[in-house]
Amino acid sequence: MTHAFTIFWGKRLLLLGLVVLPLVLTGCQRSLMRAPVMFDQSRADPFSNLPESQRHGNATIFYATNRKASPGSSEGPYGRSRASSLILGQLNVEFGKDLSWDELMEKTIGPLGGKRPALTVDPPEEYGSLLTTAPPRVVKDATGDDRDEIEVRFLNRKDPGRGAFRFAEALNAEMQATNHKEVYVYIHGYRNSFIDAIESAASLHHYNGRRGAVITFAWPSQKHLLDYLEDRESATYAVSDLRQLLVFLADHTDAERINIVAHSMGTFLTSNTLREMRLIGYDKSPEQLHQRFRIDNVVLVAPDIDVDVLQKRFFREGFHDIPRQMTIYTSPDDKALAWATRLLFGIIRAGSITGDYLDETQRLWLKSHPHVSIIDITGQKTYGLGHSHHTENPGVASDLFLLLAHDLTPSERGLAITPETNVWGFPKGYGEAVRQIAERYYPLIEENPETGVEDTATADREINPPPTPLSPSPEAATAAP
């Protein structure tokens, strides 16, 4: 008894030492993300093509969650427990308090600084479950001559259900209202509440110009510091639900492009989902898979995945064939992944690697698969623990939105490749360079000569030609996707 007691508490204290110390420094977002550096002191306007009807201080965020409802909880309408099916809905997020569109723009683009607008999440409007994720229907039939025997059958559900179709109609209406037939699915990481995930998705949606419709996939993360290993199990639990959601979006919405942004442990969930989709379509070419699922960009931010598992289980089995483009952001300075590595007995996480880690075969593989980009963010500061690059790193956020909004290659986005490793990075002077790139790809805010007030250029304004890519060497140019 004493020995077992010692082992139990010894493990808990080990977890406490490895996990609590770095993570107590983190907190809920509760405010708009840090502005991308390309919009600071810049005339680039990501909202120039947004219809007037969408220019207000609120945004619609859709959600798909397999968390059980928790009315009255401080963590939001859905808690930590696992639900038996995927629940679909939408809610409203307010940026600041009663801000006009012009006031919100002053805090979003142009000369930035000061306090960021707070985010307020309204109560949800629930549509119902995606029934293909629900438990099988139980059918009992009387059999035999005297009808006294009972046969029990379990029937998988093939009809998504009326709630799911209403959800699809709402997505289609949102895409039509913004003039972009695109869906963005955001998948959060470890230790996120439902509200945390919604707020991150709202920030990304805002700085992406509020293009199309955004869905938060909120899997049942526990939110407790000592539940890291349990969260990995919950991420695995959510794989089939995410797969069926992506299939439903391809089959029943008007989306021409489905983009996925996953963070931390959410990348583990996403990678397993893409692997399943590839194995199901094992006899299809990548082009046929793109046509079937319409998955365009998959972005893995700070992937909390065993680096060997990433290579053997995911890349070798073709998970990268599902999207048209895959981008992976890594940082050797990620403190959260460093602690995860120590917790998992020294197994390096994929989000911590640099080009120096790759062997010759892996480097050649990257060169022969230009639609897969590994980006080492060294030199770009991620605030906090150096883990949330998508919301806490103004340089990475700039690169992310140039990718999502304009479908630019890494070289067109101002990145530089290391020819020896085929890994991309941020060159010196990136901040000023990316502002110039943004001002060439986005319409500009122009000063009204009569009022002296800056006005957004009209949507049909002639946009400047693309910038000249920053190529560090002839070898880099030949290796660029």
TrEMBL record:
Pfam families: DUF900. Residues 447-481 are annotated as: Disordered. It comes from the Bacteria. SUPFAM superfamilies: alpha/beta-Hydrolases (SSF53474). This is Esterase/lipase superfamily enzyme. It comes from Algisphaera agarilytica. The lineage of its organism: Bacteria, Pseudomonadati, Planctomycetota, Phycisphaerae, Phycisphaerales.
